[in-house]
Amino acid sequence: MTYPRSPKTLVGGLAHLGRLIDKIRLRHAGHIQDYNYLTVGFDKYLLEFLNVNGQELEQRVLQGGTDEEILCWITSRGRQFSADEIRTWNDRILAGGPKDEAARQRFQARLKDIATQRGVPVNLLPHVDTWADVIELDEGRL
User: Fold this and answer.
1) pLDDT tens, 114-131?
2) Could you tell me which residues are beta bridge partners of residue 15?
3) Is this model's pTM higher than 0.85 or not?
4) Residues 6+ apart with CB under 8 A from 132
5) CA 139 to CA 3: how far, in whole Å?
6) CB neighbours of 87 closer than 8 A, spacing ≥ 6?
7) In sequence order, what are the beta bridge partners of 14?
8) Cα angle for residues 117, 123, 126 (degrees, 5° grid)
């Protein structure tokens, strides 16, 4: 399985942007089918933060270019960010965990799925408490 970059990889100082770019590229190359992007989760939140239309970003990524070129396109269409806004964004993505009971249940369900895929009990998985770490665990980087 080919995975997009870690949400922890920074592009233009922003967590998750490289991952979103990779998701678009990989999905359209036929390497991943089951990734929902642009309308849910971190992808949706990132597009809102960037103030960029997801379909327009998708079209731009598919035209080709480097991460830096895509970032320039984003900043020319979206908004400029202060260092504080970027820190707040990155903290939200990199340190965020489940905030309510429904989210805790989804979090535990993801861990159970990962444990099942690995053929081990949940308690033998590395300890994680953030959504970003669940992604890392699920994709074999933890």
Assistant:
1) 999 999 999 999 999 999
2) 10
3) yes
4) 6, 7, 8, 15, 93, 94, 95, 96
5) 7
6) none
7) 11
8) 75
